[in-house]
Known about the structure:
Oligomer: single chain
Number of helices: 7
Strand content: 15-25%
Helix content: 25-40%
Amino acid sequence: MPELPEVETVARGLQKSIxxxxxxxxxxxxxxxxxxxxxxxxxxxGRQIEKVERYGKFMLLRLSPGLxxxxxxxxxxxxxxxxxxxxxxxxxxxxxxxxxxxxxVWFELDDGRELRYTDPxxxxxxxxxxxxxxxxxxxxxxxxxxxxxxxxxxxxxxSRNAQIKALLLDQSxxxxxxxxxxxxxxxxxxIHPMRRGTExxxxxxxxxxxxxxxxxxxxxxxxxxxISDFLDADGEPGExxxxxxxxxxxxxxxxxxxxxxxxxxxAGRSSYFCPxxxxxxxxxxxxKRRRQARNG
DNA sequence: CGTTGAACCTGTTTGC
DNA sequence: TGCAAACAGGTTCAAC
Length: 296
């Protein structure tokens, strides 16, 4: 569910509502999505949440130096890394309110509230990481799509023979793009999701970066897309789903040309596109119909 | 190197 | 109405 704009929305909300608060205690339910549950219970109590930021689809809760002695990496960029997976929600709540179903982590704060993590499918991830470990973790990711230069974007995309949809979803190429914003940007750039990176012209590549950034910025302004269950840190849905041009529009007409939006599985994911505006690449032979004779 | 499919887990929607 | 299949904003891993 949460891609870059949704995670940015949650991170900004949390920065406003919980930055500066201290974690008093930690309570855990199911923990199979937590790297080292005991580390949370051991290291988080007493720490102040200094800042909440986004890194790709991750949230980084930057923590104050710990008071426990014996922890050689105290203060060394200690952070709580949170990935929302498909259905994760992280939001503060009055401690007295009942917890939603599938709430698995409660951080008691020093102002009487609790920061709660709820995640029905538990595809999310949570980890307490310090300095070197955190840095190492983050090196696996590619460029931030909002910051990437035209040159870097082009070199990352045009050097790869994979399908452009797969490249946009690959977090080691760009960090933060998911299924919705991949399809939305490809529709706007008029590029078929099965086109190869190597196949894109310089113009197309420039256009793709431009519209991707534009879509992401506008989606952030609209506080993300809520298809069925995304809620921000204030419990509010986003509005950007109203502006979707491709994603989820199978069978409806293309806003640009009126053709019928199609759905196909590309890179293992449902992909929505306009078959007219986004012409398909020449299909590989792949058995089936033997049209033209090859050999000459 | 690139693709595909399965797996992780729960809930909701769709189809017969 | 009932029940099974398909599908969901993500990631990872094995197999080819």
